[in-house]
Amino acid sequence: MKRYIKLFILCLVLSQSIFYVHGQDLFINNTVNRKYTNLNGKWEYVLEPYKTGGMGGAAVYENKEATGKTDRVEYSFDTAETLYVPGSFNTQKPELKYFEGIVWYRKTFDKANIDANKRYFINVGAANYKTKVTFNGKVLGEHEGGFTPFSYEITGLLKEKDNYLIIGVNSGRSADYIPAVVTDWFNHGGITRDVKLLETEKTFINNFFIALDKSSLDKKNKRIKGSVFFDGPQIPQEISVKIPELKVEETFSTNQEGPTTFSFSVKNLSLWEPANPKLYDVHISAGSSSVKDAVGFRTIETRAREILLNGKPVFLKGICLHDENPFRKDCANTVEDAELVLNWAEELGCNFIRLAHYPHQEKLVRLADEKGILLWEELPLYWGIQWGNPEVLEKAKSQYDELINRDYNRASSIIWSIANETAPGKDRNNFLSNLADYIRSKDSTRLISAAVKKDQEIDGHPDSVYTYNDPLIEKLDIISINEYLGWYGGLPEESRTKSFTTGMEKPIIVSEFGGGALQGFHGDKHTRWSEEFQENLYKESLAMFDKIEGLAGMTPWILVDFMSPLRQLRGVQDGWNRKGLISEKGQKKKAFFILKEYYDNK
Predict the structure, then answer these.
(1) Residue 215: pLDDT band by 50, 70, 90 thresholds?
(2) The model scores a pTM over 0.70
(3) Which is nearest to 507 in space by CA: 484, 535, 479?
(4) Confidence band (pLDDT; 50, 70, 90) for 19?
(5) CA dist., res. 264 & res. 224, Å (int)
(6) Is it the case that residue 323 has pLDDT exceeding 50?
(7) Strand-pair category, 163-170 with 102-109
(8) Does residue 50 carry a pLDDT above 70?
(9) pLDDT digits (tens, 9 = 90+) for 130-183
């Protein structure tokens, strides 16, 4: 398979740094607005628990079938059971609930009217965790990372009849993966997001970046900057950028050696913000290739201890969220799944959501653009990461490459977070500092944060003072802290004597706090697992955090109860983390209304 031009990425400040998107053939963004055939639906599957890559000595992706009575083939897709794609295989079959291994999926299809002047790609929205993609018996490549999209070219392999796409997905955990071995969420395995057959021109626009130049924020005429990336044998001489509503129609000469950059001024630009989530149709064309997207324009920055959206202070009234539909007990993968949780967040009074602890489905991010909900996005750089392993650092960079490529044009996404609850140390500090620098080199339009831990008790400080001196803070725009006083240690009332200090002029987000409650279980405020205990914990915690100088927002843990094998207390948890403000059945707990009242008055 011939590569025509390596993918170039650069940040909006138009640096000329170049990187290859690891582990995939070519990154193709904005697939929702391209020509494609949907390959979702029922797929046959073969289970491979021992992860050998074959059955009875035969590679599964070769799709062999016995043709005579003496043939020995020890698997068969033709007689196999089926799974729905997208979806977690663990939640579709009771016997697969805790299975972690390889599942081989097969999809057969015909493709009429194959155009010799077009190119064709298989695009996978996400598959957890390590994926081998094959087509008509040929291995296209392997992708690592469970939550970001990837594509492989099948031009020249595609037939009008009897195509078979076989994808092997290994959901097993390993110490050198991201995340590592232990997590506090359910390891949904399989092809978890949409699969598409994309059709493009021979030379086409595979991605573009566009955003408001923040240096023009205070000017009457704003400036828009961007860049366009091509893949193909012959780059067009010009590109056209149109924003019809703004009467923009600009033409630029292309860069034949790399990405084409552009910049132009606009009048009467309405800035995107929660109260006015204005999106403009942006059309970019070059030669016979064209793309379009709905884009909002905004700036996000910090000033001392404030977060500024479009130059004005904003308080982030947030909540944490996992990427699940609790009713289906499956990973989220539809617009309806996104609407369910975003509507709950809006009812709570939120203008901000922390998408924990991995990239969520693109449909939710796009819906947040439409609704005017700000987002924090992150990778699962969580417990047990091999900080001293340079290969793991490269994996983190690769996964952030894919996430930045996917969501760069989403106005709602304002924060990249690089870690959660990680202990300082030489290897960890070097790893995350390197990653922070790397992300800034790719995207200057967002802020960087990480959920850091408080210091151990220090001699000379009273127990009532929590200090934060993690060296990583120097690399962050926002200091984010997780604090579970009243749940993990102490009682909620102890928060009345606590205060916080960082010694730095940076805004602070309380990125996690809360406690568990079983919806419908009642007792007094000291009865663990009762709604009243959680309600009281929220009252005391909110009063404590309100005293923080520089408090710029919060994202309590968490909007909805979510699946977690770590949580096995029978009759209470039963495989669910119960810190949600809403149960897995959609019933609101008492603490929901405490936080809603706080946000309504904030």
Answers:
(1) very high
(2) yes
(3) 479
(4) very low
(5) 6
(6) yes
(7) antiparallel
(8) yes
(9) 999 999 999 999 999 999 999 999 999 999 999 999 999 999 999 999 999 999
Q: What is the Cα–Cα distance from 569 to 552, expressed in whole angstroms?
A: 36
Number of other residues whose CB lies within 10 A of the CB of residue 479:
24
Distance CA 36, CA 79 (A): 29
Backbone angles phi, psi at 160, to 5 degrees: -75, -25
* 331 vs 361: CA distance, rounded Å: 9
- The torsion of the CA quartet 485, 490, 495, 500, rounded to 10 degrees, works out to -50
> 348: which 2 tokens?
């709570």
Q: State residue 25's pLDDT score.
A: 67
Q: 3-class DSSP state for residue 509?
A: strand
Token duo for residue 196: 């598409």
Question: What is the residue whose two structure tokens read 């023009």?
Answer: 216
Terminal-to-terminal C-alpha distance of the chain: 57
423 phi, psi to nearest 5 deg: -85, 135
Q: Are 62 and 75 in contact (CB under 8 A)?
A: no
Strand order in the sheet with 36-38: 36-38, 195-201, 118-124, 150-153
DSSP state of 473: G
Residue 506: strand pairing partners = none
- The residue count of the chain comes to 602
Going by pLDDT thresholds of 50, 70 and 90, the confidence category of residue 463 is low
Q: Which residue in this structure is represented by tokens 């997780």?
A: 482
How many Cβ atoms sit within 10 Å of the Cβ of residue 93?
13
The closest alpha carbon to 228, from 196, 250, 195, belongs to: 250
pLDDT class of 464 with cuts at 50, 70, 90: confident
Q: What is the dihedral of CA 76, 96, 333, 576, to 10 degrees?
A: 180
pLDDT one-digit tens code per residue, 447-461: 999 999 998 755 445
All residues at 6 or more sequence positions from 508 whose CB lies less than 8 Å from its CB, including other chains: 305, 478, 479, 480, 481, 500, 502, 548, 550, 551, 552
> What is the residue type of 468?
Y
DSSP conformation class of 364: H
Structure tokens at 90: 């663990």
- Greatest CA separation found in the chain? 83
- How many Å apart are CA 377 and CA 139, to the nearest integer? 32
Q: How far apart are CA 352 and CA 296, in angstroms?
A: 16
Yes or no: say if 80 and 44 are a contact pair by the CB < 8 Å rule. yes
Rounded Cα distance, 467 and 458, in Å: 9
Instruction: Please write the tens of the pLDDT for every residue from 546-561.
Output: 999 999 999 999 999 9
* DSSP-based three-state secondary structure for 105: strand
Kindly state the tokens that stand for 416.
């990249």
